[in-house]
Amino acid sequence: MNRQVLVLNQNYEPLNITSMRRAVVLLHLGKAEVVAELERHLRSTNHSMHEPTVVRLSHFVRRPYPDLRVTRRGIFARDGHRCQYCGAENVVLTIDHVLPSSRGGGNDWTNLVASCVACNNKKGSRTPEEAGMRLRHTPFRPRTAPCIGYARFVVGVRDPYWNSYLAPYAKGLELN
Predict the structure, then answer these.
(1) Cα–Cα distance, 36 to 163 (Å, whole number)
(2) Per-residue confidence at 176, pLDDT binned at 50, 70, 90?
(3) CA distances, 153 to each of 3, 26, 106, 116, 135 (Å)
(4) What tens digit of pLDDT does each residue of 108-153 get?
(5) Phi, psi at residue 150, to the nearest 5°?
(6) What 8-state DSSP symbol labels residue 40?
(7) Domains in the chain, CATH or no CATH each
(8) pLDDT by residue (tens digit) across 77-107?
(9) pTM score, two decimals?
């Protein structure tokens, strides 16, 4: 019972990702209804069990859109945990400033990319053009679901049960 559950506002807008325990409490109190569920077969018996995977609140909750903060985890999630210069996966990644900070480059979504250590060292304090390197994707400020942190959102949008609810907010995100 450790699966996460997507919580939708009354208007089906993604609101939060919560624990199965919290979702069951919301359902039991009549504060939410099941929108999608997962059927699991129990090994010891021939019975199956239904677990909610998406719930919708029965009342509308007003929440302001949070400011999307730049974090290492968010940059790595946006870039698919791949080096944006050589495309390497499953390697130690660092954060690289496209326009080096020593030359006025900021710490924002459009200037930071995931980079392997080798590419980051090769590029040094130069721009990609000066180093003879090319970015695989132009860095962008992601548009996310209103109240879900970006890294959790990226994981959630890849979940087949949640995709149809989160995909409209995933414009520009690589889903490979």
Answers:
(1) 12
(2) very low
(3) 15, 21, 24, 23, 24
(4) 999 999 999 999 999 999 999 999 999 999 999 887 655 677 778 8
(5) -60, -45
(6) E
(7) 4-65+144-169 (no CATH), 72-131 (1.10.30.50)
(8) 889 899 999 999 999 999 999 999 999 999 9
(9) 0.63
